[in-house]
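Homework help thread (please don't just give me the answer)

Our assignment gives two proteins as sequence + structure token strings and asks us to describe the second one. The first is just a warm-up. Here they are:
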Amino acid sequence: MSPPISPERVLPTLNADGTRNRIRPRLYEGRLWRARRLVAYGLMLLFVGLPLLRIHGKPAILLDVARREFTFFGRTFLSTDGVLLMLLMLSIFVAVFWTTALVGRGWCGWACPQTVYMEFLFRPIERLLEGKREGQLRLDREGGGVRRLLKNALFLGLALVLANVFLAYFVGVAALRTWVIEAPSEHPGGFAVVLVTTALVFFDFAYFREQMCTVVCPYARLQSVLLDRRSLVIGYDAKRGEPRSKGKPQPGRGDCIDCTACVTACPTGIDIRQGLQLECIACGQCVDACDSIMMRIKRPVGLIRYASQVGLETGKRTPLVRTRVLIYSGILTLLLSVLLLVGGRQADADVTLLRGIGAPFSENSGLVTNQIRIKIQNRGPNAELFGIELTNVPGARLIAPENPLSVGRGEQRTTSVFVIAPIDAFTRGERKISFRVVDEHGFHGEFSYKLLGPERGGSS
């Protein structure tokens, strides 16, 4: 029995009978494609180089999930930095809103790693080995043969390289180098992670491809919320193009000659003349295709172009900067300012003073003893020795079983100290003191604390 045929439009990646429609876009090397190529190569270099770049002795970006440390451009956030992480996430979300309101899905078409690597690394290799669109379609019908095997072997090698670069953002270059150089038996867990990541990258770019944008990625489905009618999108000028003629322009008809160049050039397989669709990634390949046809038939370019929906309907240029964009800009500026201000004041160590467990104090022979727990979180790039000193209490003594306290990089340790002060140092059962905590690399902090004692203390 033959498969059922859908009477309505299905996804561009699916045929009417539910089978996979493999998208083999035709390349038109227009002005937008050349600009995107420069951006893509720059982003590739940035992607590969960031894990190697060090700022203030730290990786430019390191998302160490296992240790719950997140380093961005020389500043390390810990899992306990709830306020900073919240500000960072809010800034990212508002930046997404701002970008989409301003330039639609410009991120998808120009900077998303899926698009960048698919269109400017994997597809060029595919065209080199299998030929242009017609040759690839023929191989789809007749079988791939040696050329497709060679292509997949190269894809697998590239997937391995990209997987290692990707993992460098999460485990660091040093750990990754160990995984690569040493035998897999020395680190089976790391080797398994590399294999799984390589397989996923290969599956994505060799088989799944544009379905990542049209089926998996949720960003397309958020367009209806994030876009408005004045956002910059890829659009077809129906007023100028309709009614269509076939083959060449005809008197009294529009400029569109129904050549379908825009359709064959689209990496997600849509017909932009049907209006804005969630599968459109705003890459502009249909713009280059249509412009090349317009120049050939001696018509003005721009039948398909970047424009707002209002601009396409009215024929007038609409300003991109508007109230919504200004509001997003203000919120984003405020969030980033607060993030930089709070993050800039962050010291290389967090010190917390806690009261000891048990009785709040003990009294013996005119002396009052308080137990204090000192918790130190080391944010610095190296292990440190933190010295603890007691200040501004004449006659008081500090007993610290472990002083200086050794704290590893990114670690947190707690030590108990005892402060013994004469009873005369207390007023109404209290005495304010200060601890000074220092390390060998310049950290210096004064931390106040309230000692407790008997109500019958003397004057201070």
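The one we have to describe:
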Amino acid sequence: MIIKRHQIKSELTDSLYELINSRYSELFYAVLIHGSVATGEVIKYSDFDGLLIVKDEWVGSKKMHQFEIDSMQLILKFDPLQHHGWFKIKESDLRNYPEDYMPVAVLEKASLLYPNVTELELNITIGSNINYNRVLLPMLAQFEKRLNTHWKPKNLFQLKSYL
């Protein structure tokens, strides 16, 4: 799969690239963005969707944790109601790609934020242990619990997260 360099300029993507390039580049095999920010279809309630492909040796490190804190400050300026953080996989996961975590179809319209190359070929091998229920069943259980308890959002963040 070929991922092309992100071409749509925005304060958010420029700031994220600068943060990665200046302080955190050694952490990543690649940083991809997807969704409306990647396609240039941002609307007032768009959130930020990004996938970090982290070099295995940096997974769980203090520096990786600090990157997440620093980058979320930028992301929250873009969307104060951001309801999730980065999606993350290890570089080694490309050899056994977790299709049930982030479907490859999502990456078809993704763009490359880092590294600064025109395009990057991701050699993805889909894992054989695909279990969509691993993600789906807890999500459905959460919806069922909220319906059974007549849950109502207390603020816009909770409403956006629920939707």
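TA reply:
I won't write it for you, but here's a hint about the kind of observation we're looking for: The chain has a mean pLDDT of 88.
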